[in-house]
Write a structure and sequence with these properties.
This protein has 141 residues and is α/β, with parallel strands linked by helices. It has helices at 28-39, 95-105; strands at residues 21-24, 42-46, 58-62, 65-70, 88-91, 108-115, 121-126, 132-137. It has two domains: 1-73, Signal recognition particle alu RNA binding heterodimer, srp9/1, CATH 3.30.720; 88-137, 2-Layer Sandwich (Signal recognition particle alu RNA binding heterodimer, srp9/1), CATH 3.30.720.110.
């Protein structure tokens, strides 16, 4: 089932995580499919698309937390706007596998994975919707 044809796959999917990002992206159903391929996201709920192909709500589980998406609705005060001033951080246990999967899906390397001064391995990617993702693998003691 794709987000474009989805009805909620669970009656009322649980929200996972303490702070949940709710992204407005131009093409929320396409973004959900990209996040499935790039980050192993699971679609747990979505509102049907309207006659313009937009949806007001998609709920994904990504790496143990919830991520929510919607399309812009300029006629309701939510115009298209480029993402800026934030990034999403995925704490992972195998950064190389996560990185390779995301790049194979179409993410663009912004900062290649490297060992950082704090000891963790870290890198940044930009997805096709303009969202900056950081991957961090904690140092193993």
């Amino acid at each position: 089932m794709t987000a474009a044809t989805a009805t909620p796959t669970r009656a009322n999917p649980a929200m996972l995580g303490g702070v949940i990002a709710y992204l407005q992206v131009d093409g929320a159903t396409r973004a959900a499919e990209f996040y499935r391929r790039a980050f192993g996201a699971e679609l747990v709920g979505a509102q049907p698309v309207d006659d313009r192909g937009r949806t007001m709500h998609v709920h994904l589980y990504v790496n143990g937390g919830s991520l929510m998406l919607s399309d812009p609705y300029p006629e309701h005060g939510h115009p298209v706007a480029p993402p800026q001033g934030f990034h999403l951080l995925l704490a992972v246990d195998d950064i190389d596998a996560w990185w390779q999967r995301a790049v194979a899906a179409g993410a663009i390397a912004v900062m290649p994975v490297a060992e950082m001064f704090w000891g963790d391995r870290y890198g940044q990617l930009r997805d096709p919707f303009g969202i900056l993702w950081a991957l961090n693998q904690p140092k193993r003691c």
